[in-house]
């Protein structure tokens, strides 16, 4: 046994600790869910509807079953249990039986001895459809006959704050505008994949997901299994961004494994991935802002319409955010915000990074610029004048009790140095459109735009939000102390596994920290979404560490003397402060905490070609406290790239509800040449109630970047640009 | 066909049949018969592949080398990047049977187990890895770039890596890692 040491371990909180999975990832040896293989396994494939709306008249699996190597075909009649699933309400069939409500809806699933065979067999399952005119206009959905027994409105929410129907005095300035946000896709790089293995009474599933326990509960209910016999393990996840919060291939894989008695692997190709997960809600927004001539916001009125597509997913929570945060991080005397999330025959939409806030931030920040122009004020000065501060009330009546560095974020972003002007003879690769699109340097106009946004952290509106973690400390065969963490929080790339080790090193003074695989053998950790795992599962690990210390009778550094009676293991459940439901006026303390960011963008635009080059992004980001500055920087730069994509080209397009660009050739993702230099100022004001003072940073960087880019293009061109993504024709011809 | 020519063809090719067509994966029809590939310095026998199977599919499913990833199988994301006689190719666009005369280098072959190249180390040191699904492709692409153009400017680095998609990092830390290798930083 080594002598006790008081040396601080490396890689504690506040350091750029390295990822524990980094070495495996750079060497190609990290096992993703698509890398799983087992002897004797079968492969599964899905039969999906080519129609957005149809009745199913007949399903004949015969031609598929006749193919040598095909082992099983399952349809709705093979599903036990409720036969339905859904993240917030079970309104989605496991396999459609009689009605198709969206393009790509699963109808049947096939198991065969190879993936190629399974995919070929899926094309041979003969489904007879009677197509039905799809309902694709979300405005029309409000009055249209219901597409589903649950109706066409997922949620209708009104926020009334400060007598918003009262007449306003004369002499005020109003600006009014309508805006649209297109359907963005999370487009995580690792397509959905997993491996289901049948057990005597249930199934084991290794899968890439964001929320193991919700998956488990939905699978058990939908397939009629005891949830104790549905065991999930997180397999290596290739990104998520909200697109893995709902079930994808889980049900088909488990069903086929149960049916065949053999392990069944499934893996979507890219086209199926686009059809197999939820997207960011397209939004139609109407706003009217009214202010005094000095620039004090008097009233904000807005209507928000979100197209939830065919099934509920998290539409209710997305709408909650869109409406609650629709006025932006500003003090507003009165507000009336009305929102709807509706069902259509478009692809199902759910919670993509920054959910709800991304959509309305484009609206409120476009409006703030329009208001600044109407008042002949500097856009930054208008925002600083109205910025929320601690102690202010939101339009939901909730008082901000934690840190709210809106002004600090704005001034930090604005103070960062501007880039040098475009040189007279620039590298053609740096021109708008790159070297191939023929922009001439002399034609290029530069613009600058600014935006600020905010979002809630963690789950809101009374949701019982908690996480569970255990920490075990023992002496290994080398005589060294080793701590083992077990937590079901999904590592999706964000770096939670890094943070877990940092917390244990800081809290227990132990250098060696191992992580057990995330699985359902321990209690829930909740979803890796809503910027919540640093606070929630970080809090659970910290609580478990404190319990270990207490049982050991130790201070902040455990050593071998504390383990004389053997290993110590403690499990703790962590909850954030309870929140309230919103009342009939949309009032209540519905949220736990808030995070803010301000972003300034410089663009070069060729106004005739409609091409844009983002030159620089400068951002001030509220992080509470940066527990791993390198990791935080990665979240900020990655989030900014996604918001840039939404501003300039990312849109999943549909015609009559049918997705027409389900490939990486036609759905454009930002590349190294599209994403500009990002200059970041971290604003560190520790959040009083947060473990270690840290705020989750997963989502907020994505929120203000989109309106900031559009503002910069407006600045360069004078175009109205009321829709994202901005198309070249919108710039060159003023089409939107 | 020389390997260099093959690489150019691969880079310019229209996409091979998508993976959901029967010929593209798993050897349903037209088996190519056993053949050998030289991968990471070893001669490997390929027995179960079809003539139309991509190099990516053979590496992953026949040879168990899952470092090259299959994020699009359309040549648009770079996650399947490998070196063919030192030239960067998208292995999803190369027919495996056509690579018989070439030396294939995958991410697994860049360094011995437990060791890391300077590029791999720089990716770790500079925070270039998040979910990591793009990482093998980026490591291979950056390795090719630094071999061919060690003095590339930042814009040239960005141009050279623009065939590789990363959805997590926003590229800032990836470019920083490559620049650090160029600068000789430890």
Annotate the secondary structure layout.
The complex is a heterodimer of chains A (736) and B (186).
Chain A: H1 22-26, E1 42-48, E2 54-60, H2 62-65, E3 70-74, E4 84-85, E5 92-93, E6 99-100, E7 106-112, H3 115-124, E8 126-131, H4 138-141, E9 153-161, E10 173-181, E11 193-198, E12 203-207, H5 212-223, E13 230-234, H6 250-260, E14 264-267, H7 270-276, E15 279-280, E16 283-291, E17 297-307, H8 315-324, E18 334-342, E19 349-350, H9 357-375, H10 379-386, H11 406-415, E20 445-457, E21 466-475, E22 481-487, H12 496-508, E23 512-515, H13 533-552, E24 568-575, E25 593-606, E26 611-622, H14 629-648, E27 654-655, E28 658-659, E29 677-683, H15 702-717, E30 723-724, H16 728-732
Parallel strand pairs in A: 1-14, 10-30, 12-13, 15-19, 17-18, 22-23, 26-29
Antiparallel strand pairs in A: 1-7, 2-6, 2-8, 3-7, 4-5, 9-18, 10-16, 11-12, 11-14, 16-17, 20-25, 21-22, 21-24, 25-26, 27-28
Helix pairs in contact in A: 5-6, 8-9, 9-15, 12-13, 14-15
Chain B: H1 3-12, E1 35-39, E2 42-46, H2 55-62, E3 81-84, E4 87-90, E5 103-105, H3 118-125, H4 135-148, H5 154-160, H6 172-182
Parallel strand pairs in B: 1-5
Antiparallel strand pairs in B: 1-2, 3-4, 3-5
Write out the CATH superfamily name of the largest domain in chain B. Beta-grasp domain
Note the quaternary state here: heterodimer
Rg on CA atoms of chain A, Å:
26 Å
Per CATH, the class of the domain at 398-457 and 591-736 in chain A reads Alpha Beta
Q: If you consult CATH, what is the topology of the domain at 398-457 and 591-736 in chain A?
A: Aldehyde Oxidoreductase, domain 4
Give the beta-strand count of chain B: 5
**Total individual domains of chain B:** 2
| N/C terminus separation of chain B | 41 Å
Overall body shape of chain B: elongated
Largest sheet of chain A: 7 strands, mixed
Cα radius of gyration of chain B in angstroms? 16 Å
